[in-house]
Each structure stands twice: as structure tokens, then as C-alpha cells.
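anyone else get weird line breaks when pasting these?? whatever heres mine. first is seq + C-alpha cells for prot A
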Amino acid sequence: MRSINSPELHRNMGFWNEATQQALLDTEVAIAGNGGTGNLFGMELARVGIQKFRIADPEVFDEVNSNRVMGARVDTIGRNKAEVLKEDILSINPDASIIVYSEGITPDTIEEFLSCADIALNGLELTKPELGTMLARQARTRKIGRLLVPVPMVDVEYIAHAGQGTVFDPLSSMTFERFMGIQGGEHAPLDEIAEQIIDPNRYLAYIPPYGDLKTLEAIQKGCPLPSNMIGAGVAAQIGLSEVLKLVRKRAGERGLPPTYAPAIRWYDAYTNKSGITRHPKMSYYRHLGGALLSNVFQKNEPASYSQDERALRGDIG
């Protein structure tokens, strides 16, 4: 395993100290969802010194992942995302400890998945809200022996060229279920949550002003949410910086506090605008209004994302 004397970590010093670096080396991170953000997040964590991982994803890479996932390459198409991420992390640090859950997180594995974690990352798709809920519930109730030792959960999202992030404090009354507007709250059965659809105004504090509203119409008709490398990369960077805040706090070092829910912070790499809000729903509608005005005055590039246009390209996923 690496130490603070490893040359691979020398250039980290200067913006944090040896105590913080040692804390990073000693931290275990559990990443649920190893696609766009989760994949890049894992590799970036390895570069700052995290060397203990548990990673979970049941899916395999296909060609449409290639525009935003670093691990999606010609030689990895058809392979499990978690297995590929393990190989990529080991190519950065051959001594890293990595436990893979290629079936993803399940009711049978979730307790083990978080058993030694210091921090969890929710990189799961919100089209399956029961999975994020399961992760959050275990993070709040994790025990080591008879002692309750809950786990903070970093949650990141991205849209267009922007990313955003928040941290769920496991001791806070602002739970994942409350934040996402899960019907039935903390006591709703997972099978019932699986039938629910989370409104974007619950998890997106920012809507880019340059979006084509016809894209939103297409999404409402069943088209997948478009995504790209810029947004995925920004979201991963935000998640990484929240991990640094959590690690510094645990080590007793000075630094900014984590962005605890209900607060969300966001950054758009295209407009160079950023913000933080404790009222994400209000922020969502404020930014949506700006996007509406940009469309009314025809300021935005048409996105070529109608169902007919996608069909002509053979994009039927």
C-alpha cells in the first residue's frame, strides 16, 4: 500500500498537509454506480491517494457509454463496468484494495458493501430510486458490532455541461427520501419506491439556459436524458472535492465544510457560472425560466433530439 512518502503523491502536498494525505490513504470509499460519474470519480480518487474501494455495478458497457465514460473503450464494450473500473484503478495504483460487486448493490449485499466504508458515493440512476434509497438507508443505519457508525453519502448529478453535488449527513433530518420527495418517506417499502418517478425539480438545482426545450419534450415522451463528458467530468470533480472536505473534517484539519443537503452546489463549465442554494426546487424553476426565455427569443442551438431525428440516426435506445 502507498504511504505519504510515495512519489506518486508528492505533488498533492502544498495544498494539503501530510495529515490530510494520510487520512486519504486510510479512507475507504464505496462507489455504487460505476458509469459516467462513478467511473471518473473512482479514478480521480485513486490519484489523490484513496486506495481502499468497494465498487458496485451490474451493467456492462455498450457503445453509447463511450461519449462520457472514461472506462468505455473498444476493448471494454460488453464487459462489466465495475470490473473495468477495478482494472483502471489498479493501473494507477497496483496496490489498491478493491472489492467488486458485479451484481450491483442488492438487499443481500448492501450491508457488506458499506461494512467498512468511511464515505459512500451515490452514482446510481434516479430512474431506479429504490437503489439510491437502499444505499442511503444503510448509510444511516450502518453498525460496527453493536455501535452505530453511520456513513456520509455524496450524491452527484449532471446535466448538459454542468454538474452538481450534495452530501447527505447520516445524522441529519434531511434524509435522501425527504430530499427526493419519496412518497412514504423513510418507511416506504423499496418495491413501492421502485414504482415512483422522482421529479427533476427535487434533484436538479440548475437547468442550463442554452438547452433546447424540445429535448425536454422528447425526454417526457420516453427518450433518454442526453449527457456528455463535460457534465460528467464536472460532477466527478465536485464529488471529489466533497470527499476531500469530509476527509479533512474527519482528520480534524482546517477547511471548508461539506455541502450538506438540502444545500446543493453546481457549476456550468460552458457558461462559467456556479452557485450554491439551500432551496433547490426554487433554484430549478428560476433557471428553467431563464431557459424558457432563451428559447422564446431563439438564442439556443436546435438540439436535433426529437424522436424522428433520433430514429434517423439509428438511436433507438
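and prot B, same format (seq, then C-alpha cells)
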Amino acid sequence: MNNEDDLLLNLHANTVCFFGIFAFMTSLAQQTVKVAILDLYNGFPNQGMRGIRAILEEFGSENQLQLTYDEFDVRRTAHVPDLSYDVYISSGGPGSPFDGEGTEWEERYFNWLQAVLEWNADPLKQTKKYVFFICHSFQMASRYFNLGNVCKRKSTAFGVFPVHIVQSSANENVFDGLKDPFYVVDSRDYQVIEPDFQQLKRIGAHILCIEKDRPHVPLERAIMAVRFNEYMIGTQFHPEADAIGMSMYLQTEEKKATVIENHGFEKWKSMIEHLEDPDKILWTYAHLLPNFLRQACNLKSVHVLV
């Protein structure tokens, strides 16, 4: 082997070594994010938990994060997360938001919420905790903060509907990339109406969007999203709804029969059509929760999940 061959071998070895060290240092530099999912489904079959997991996994991969998550079966086991997590997502769930009154699980849930509030209020805690409340959790948080009248609807809301952004919240970060109105999956028997504006102002909360306008219906429009404070936000609807997965689910014989029996064939057909429209649920899924996670992780660049 001549000197030229030795030089080439040394150059190759140094190159491999450099890129190996670079890859190792890059992996060390990856941002670590711990997420706690508070499962309020009480053991009921649902699509929500699957959607939350999918968004977290896609977001972590798209943004090259070391993102991990743990799940807490709050209503069945009264287990809630500690304060070692960076982000908390509290799920939807069945039944009344008052079902937990007087129970151990609700007491622990509200104690957890208060603990997060106190952490974020502490000026010595430079890293804050971010929380997202979905549907049932949103109703419970609205109860906790006394933001309005949490009450039963006259009829069940079920389907794909437009929601309207409140003008004063048009620059809200979680709405980046969304149109006004944007479309959501709504499934609930309860609602939050008649907001207490003095209480909203007192705690620094803002109404973000309201349900579709129905001039022919003499009922107040429900609140569909609230920023409770700088670090906590909630939606009455399901931003984790995965259009493709939901469409497949609704087309199973059992679920199709259930929806048609309770809501009629036209409602079922309308939901399938909306779910297949890329400008509706697919678009909301790809933007809203990822926007929240981007803010919680302090990411500057935009990565849209498609």
C-alpha cells in the first residue's frame, strides 16, 4: 500500500469518525418532552385516546423530539400525574361533567389542576407546564374556574360542525393555519353557555371560539374554546379526531347502525362526507393540537402534520 492509499484510508476514517460524533451529539441535543395523558373515558370504548397518541407520536417524529408519554386512568383508578411532566393533555369522556362530584378521582383531578396553577404562578419556576383540556375535561375545567353555566343541552350534539373564531382571538397561536370558520368533530350532551365575563377578566381567561350561528334557533351559542391562562387552553370539541380513522370506524356495521338509529341516515352520510373533505377535519387535526404542542415545546419552526 502506497502513501496515497494510506492518505485515503485516513481521510475515510476521519470522515466516518466526524459524522459518528456529529450524529451522537445531535441525538444528545434532541429536546426531551414528557407528556401526561389524563384519560377521562372511564373505560368506555373511544377514538379519542388513539387520536391523542397518534398526534403525539407524529409530532415528536416530525420535530425530532425525544417525546414520551404516560397515561393515567383518572376516573377508574383516581390516578393523576405528578409535576414531572412538561405537557398535560386531558381527554374527553362520557356522561355528565358533574358525575365526579364527591368522588376521590375528581378531588385528585382538581388538586392536580391547582398544583399546576401554583407551579406556573411561581416566578422561581422558569419552565412552565402546559395543559390542554378536551370536551369533558373542558367542561370540568370550566366548572373549576367558574366561567359560566355548565349545563345539559336540549339535544345531543353529534357530527361535524363549523365553529367561529371570536374576533378578539383571531391572533391566537393555536389557530395558526386555520380558517374562520373551521370544522370540528362535536359529540356531547353538555355545554358551557352564559359566560361570566367578570370572572373571565379576573383570571385572565379569553373565549376563543363559539359554535355555529343558527338564527332560526332561539338558544345561546355555546362556548367552544377558552384560553384559561397563558399555559392552559381547552376546547369543547375534539381536535384529536382523526378523519381517516373516524371514517373507517363510522363505516363499521355496528357503529353505522348505532349512528343511524340515534341520529338518522342523513347524519351518518353527512359525517362521512365531511370526514373525507381535506379542508375540514383533516385540516383541523393537522393544525390545532400540533400548534399547542409547538407552543408548549417552544418551537419556532412550523411543521404541519399531513
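btw re prot B: Residues 15-28, 301-306 have pLDDT under 50 and may be disordered. The beta strands are 32-39, 66-73, 87-90, 130-134, 149-165, 182-193, 206-211, 223-229, 232-235.
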